[in-house]
Specification:
295 residues; mainly beta; eight-stranded parallel β-sheet; seven-stranded parallel β-sheet
């Protein structure tokens, strides 16, 4: 019960690395697991790297997993693996989040985790909040984020405008449902890469994806809860979740098994390239290429 810390706190030089935390049950009110690199003095150097959280079960009302760095010295937080954890959030605390991923450098993985909300909420709460000017590369796959329609200001994934140009976020195979906004992004810096492929984004009340006016979110080949695709002014007749401007969503998958693709879409499977007409695809095909036409 309480907070479990994986932390460097130093005025000198300290490194914590290759720590695995697995198969624990944690009950919390403020924070469940905190991963922190803290160098409070200008001369300090704190590094936390290659940390694994796997198979833990967390239950509480505020922040389940929190990563951050702080202090006026040199601090580094990098290469995290957060997989197979279950977070049950009851009566979520306003202005908090189940998982906060801030300032994580290197190459990190967030996969096969479950986040479920219950109870009541009188404010904003996010499933996964990603932020920080030091953030570099995250692979985010196979997660189940169920907002359970708790409150009216929740987001499954929340991207902050503190993310730097050059950050790469790849999301695939995630189920994002029951939130006010399934995926909610501030205005992102030019050069930011956010790519979503084969995710289930549906039954979110306001938006499936809402993006700001900065970098475009690449969200082709996802399922939006309807064969007709997401609702947007450019997709007349779309009955799935709403998407804002500044989101590339066409082509989309028409079914939850990711077999069929939107009408009028032609795919060169070998080149992984999409066309609006069969002739355009044929013109650029190489001998032996397979071309698939949306039904």
């Amino acid at each position: 019960t309480g907070t479990t810390n994986i932390e460097t706190l130093t005025n000198g030089f300290a490194t914590v690395e290759y720590v695995t935390m697995r198969d624990n049950e944690i009950y919390f009110t403020d924070k469940g697991i905190s991963i922190t690199a803290n160098a409070p003095s200008d001369s300090g150097s704190a590094t936390v790297a290659n940390i694994t959280l796997n198979g833990n079960e967390l239950e509480g009302s505020s922040v389940g997993i929190h990563t951050f760095k702080q202090g006026s010295g040199y601090s580094e937080l990098k290469n995290l693996t957060i997989t197979g954890n279950k977070l049950a959030i009851n009566n979520p605390t306003a202005s908090a989040y189940a998982v906060g991923l801030a300032d994580v450098e290197g190459y990190s993985e967030f996969g096969n985790n479950e986040i479920t909300l219950s109870g009541t909420l009188s404010g904003a709460y996010d499933g996964v909040d990603i932020s920080g000017g030091a953030t570099e590369n995250w692979t985010i796959s196979g997660n189940e984020l169920d907002g359970s329609n708790v409150g009216t200001s929740s987001s499954g994934f929340r991207l902050r405008n503190s993310l730097p140009s050059g950050v790469v976020l790849n999301l695939s195979g995630n189920r994002i449902t029951g939130w006010t906004k399934g995926f909610y992004s501030d205005t992102l810096a030019t050069g930011t890469t956010v790519e979503l492929r084969r995710n289930w984004i549906y039954d979110n009340t306001s938006y499936g994806i809402e993006n700001g006016s900065g970098a475009t979110i690449d969200a082709i080949l996802n399922y939006w809860g309807a064969k007709s695709g997401p609702k947007h002014s450019s997709n007349t007749g779309g009955l799935g979740d709403d998407v804002s401007d500044n989101v590339d969503f066409n082509p989309w998958h028409q079914d939850a098994d990711f077999i069929s693709i939107s009408e009028g879409t032609v795919l060169n499977i070998n080149q992984e390239k999409y066309y609006k007409t069969i002739q355009a695809a044929v013109n650029e095909a190489n001998p032996g290429d397979t071309i698939q036409v949306g039904a």
